[in-house]
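Good morning C.,

I know you're traveling, so I'll keep this short. The sequence:
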Amino acid sequence: MIVSGEITIPAPRPVVFDALQNAPFFASCVEGVRDLKEIDPTHYDAVLESKVAFMKFTFKVSVEVTKIAPPDRIEAKIEGAPIGVVGRFTAVSTTDLSEAGDETLVKYSIDANITGKLGSMGQPVLKAKAKEMEKGFVEKMRAAFAAGGPVARAGGPEAAA
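The tokens, ready to paste straight into the viewer:
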């Protein structure tokens, strides 16, 4: 399942890039992410809780940032397993940033695969949930930059950890 889109952020590309590679800030924009733990500068563990249809799932996820090319591109690999349910979640995320006047155009693509009980729910249900999470992420990103940027909103990188 591929989810892709774009968002324009009212900030310079280096500022947006720095925010997107700041794991605590990024995680704060994804609904249901908690217990983010940095293993090293390119590896993170977290818990993701999500309700799909009538079921609530909790995933233990690991994220590996596989490519960082400032201020243009970030790539990551995400793997996880739902707690208490047989299955697996894998995804590859690509984010490209380009200048749009004094703003930044962020293009993203996530190629996700889900197996097990959750995967058996069918693509339409999962796609709808992915679009719902995408909408929430975009709203939180826009709100963070409208409020003076992610560092001002989070009280600095240390406060977001």
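Safe travels,
E.
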